[in-house]
Amino acid sequence: MKIPFNRTCLGEEEIRAAMESIKSGKIGGNGPIGRRVERLIADMVGSRFVFLTTSCTHALEMALMILGIEEGDEVIMPSFSFVSAANAVMRLKAKPVFVDVGEDLNIDPLKIELAITRKTKAIICIHYAGIPCRMKEIMGLAKRYNLYIIEDAAQALGSRYKERYLGTIGDIGCLSFHETKNFTCGEGGAFLTNAKAIAKKADIAREKGTNRSAYLNGEVDKYTWFDIGSSYVLSDILAAVLLEQVKKVKHIINERKTIGLRYMKGLESLEYEDKIMLPSFDIDGSFNWHLFYFRVFTKKHRDYILRRLWEKGIGATFHFQPLHLSPYSRKMFEYKKGDFPVTEKASETLIRLPLYPALKKKEQEYIIDSIHKILKK
Ligand SMILES: *Cc1c(COP(=O)(O)O)cnc(C)c1O
Predict the structure, then answer these.
(1) Which of 14, 192, 275, 324 could form a disulfide with 98 if both were Cys (CB 3.0 to 4.6 A apart)?
(2) Distance (Å) from CA 185 to ligand 1 centroid
(3) CA of 69 to the centre of ligand 1 (A)
């Protein structure tokens, strides 16, 4: 059997939508379909403003640019993360300050507080696997120290923290529609905010620093350069694909949940035997089932299990290479091994399993059975 780590769930609806968009001739960005998607997402998650972007990375770049982050500023973020947030900070010649995560693999509010200095301007929290960070404490820190909160909600569309959707709690939230995410148009993202002043700047930054949006709305008869910006608008062809995906959000999450719960049940006995650690997902409904992972106790054992799974044709994988130990970070900063023990341990002991609607029950049974066999020895 050959089971890839990911399969996208684009179907006939998405194909038809892309075709119709192409035929319509209106394929630029900030177009009618893109705006429809923005309204749908805004209504779904309860965000006042939504701007589709070319990627989550670009939404993060916009966020830091709009908040006026500059040389000499520090932005706190977890080392256990994808590179996008760190890149966005470095581009502005500001400094990413890494901190450790807690056992939920999300940024640890206590570690944030220890890292705050006079130079700190913002915190970027990543909701790993679609699991919410401890937002109450993080928002408390923001208030106490007067800091901006940016949510990297790339993995988190559809997940909630208490009653609020992830991406709508901080000053700015960033979503991803990359092919590996729950909902995708290949490459794409979104910038969310509830603040009118931030939205106004985003509207201009996204359109190369111009007031093209106002022009499209018929508010002005020509558009021109107002501020610094770049080309961050999503083509309407991709927005058309995304529209179909957004219509299916509930359905896709439900399908993922069925598969996720099957893993939990199928691997539960291994946790009782102390062979693996399962994560504490909120299985009752506020979780989008973006990832399924489990952990073992040593790197050697993890690497062995991965190798055996690959031999059996199963596309299991690890996560993340800690940012503070990456070649670029080592060149630029003074971090060393041992600085963030929870991050380093997670990176050495975590295994992600295939989780997507197109995963067949037979395939999943094979995966679970294989893990049991590998761990028997
Ligand atoms: C996928 C991902 C990104 C990058 O998203 P793009 O849309 O590919 O730019 C950023 N942060 C996290 C946590 C991610 O998982």
Answers:
(1) 324
(2) 13
(3) 20
CA atoms within 13 A on the CB side of 229: 21
Q: Which of these, 171, 76, 79, lies nearest to 120 by C-alpha position?
A: 76
- 56: its two tokens: 């989550």
Profile the chain (377 residues) by mean pLDDT over runs of 10 residues. Answer: 95 97 95 97 98 98 98 98 98 98 97 98 98 97 98 98 97 98 98 98 97 95 96 98 97 97 97 95 87 98 98 97 97 97 98 97 98 93
For position 306, what pLDDT does the model report?
98
Q: Please provide the distance, in angstroms rounded to a whole number, between the alpha carbons at the two ends of the chain.
A: 22
Structure tokens at 81: 């993360």
In whole angstroms, what is the distance from residue 260 CA to residue 292 CA?
Answer: 6
Listed in order, strand segments (DSSP E) in the chain are: 49-53, 74-78, 95-99, 120-126, 148-152, 160-161, 164-165, 172-176, 189-193, 292-295, 350-353
Cα of 288 vs centre of ligand 1, distance in Å, is 16
- Of 51, 55, 56, 174, which is best to mutate to test ligand 1, by the most ligand atoms within 8 angstroms of its C-beta? 56
DSSP structure string for 14-67 = HHHHHHHHHHHS--SBS-HHHHHHHHHHHHHHT-SEEEEES-HHHHHHHHHHHT
> From CA 158, how far away is CA 226, in angstroms rounded?
34
Residues with catalytic annotation?
A: 181
